[in-house]
Amino acid sequence: MFNIILFGPPGSGKGTQSEKLIAKYGLKHLSTGDLLRSEIAASTPLGLEAKNFMDKGQLVPDEVVIGMISSALEANPQAQGFLFDGFPRTEAQAEALDKLLKLNQTEIHVVLALDVSDEELVKRLLNRGLTSGRSDDADEKVIRARIAEYNLKTAAVAAYYKKFDKVVHIKGEGTLDEIFQLLSNEVNGRMA
Ligand code: B4P
Fold first, then answer.
1. pTM for this one?
2. Residue 18 maps to which CATH number?
3. Is 189 domain-assigned?
4. Which residues have CB under 6 Å of ligand 1?
5. What is the ipTM of this complex?
6. Which residues bind AMP (predicted)?
7. What is the pLDDT of residues 84-125, one digit of tens each?
8. Binding residues for AMP
């Protein structure tokens, strides 16, 4: 089993690069953003609760996303490995993930952190907002709130994994293929 966290601020290319990584390495993609948007689309109680936070650019409460990831891990006992995209986003989520993986006798093997400047993030997300229909991409104020949440609560997750020497920083600006090549080089080196 090989487990990756793809880490970075909103708009850093996590979702985009995840699609390419799961296709190449046969991993199961677990995106908390996608899971939450499915719950919203199905108007479940969890989705209705999450929407209140997401529309303001705030993080959804830890217990909600941890419960979702726990169910997703249970539902995929045959996976060869997981690619976590947008999770963990707080230190409490990172600790919970470590416990869940330990129960399954596995661990996080590498945290790939995409570095992108704030101005580039805002530009990308506003651009995506023109076509995505995502309410959290439509308004610059909400986008900047998401970046502030990242700096306040999520950046600490990289520090958590640095203690275990698992974090690799990758330049997240450039073409999709250039960035994918840098990510693949790291995965290849560690899977060997
Ligand atoms: P997410 O769905 O995770 O969304 P995101 O952070 O915006 O990143 P995403 O992966 O979608 O974007 P990408 O960078 O690929 O989260 C949304 C919300 O859900 C959060 O704000 C929060 O409220 C909630 N949430 C999710 N997980 C949570 C958790 N664990 N705990 C609490 N709350 C949680 O792409 C962005 C754009 O950039 C795209 O248009 C793409 O085409 C473009 N792009 C990508 N790479 C590019 C490149 N190299 N050059 C130019 N453009 C590029």
1. 0.94
2. 3.40.50.300
3. no
4. 10-16, 32-33, 36, 53-54, 57-60, 65, 86-87, 89, 93, 124-125, 128, 136, 146, 176, 179
5. 0.86
6. 32, 37, 58-60, 86-89, 93, 134, 146
7. 999 999 999 999 999 999 998 999 999 999 999 999 999 999
8. 32, 37, 58-60, 86-89, 93, 134, 146
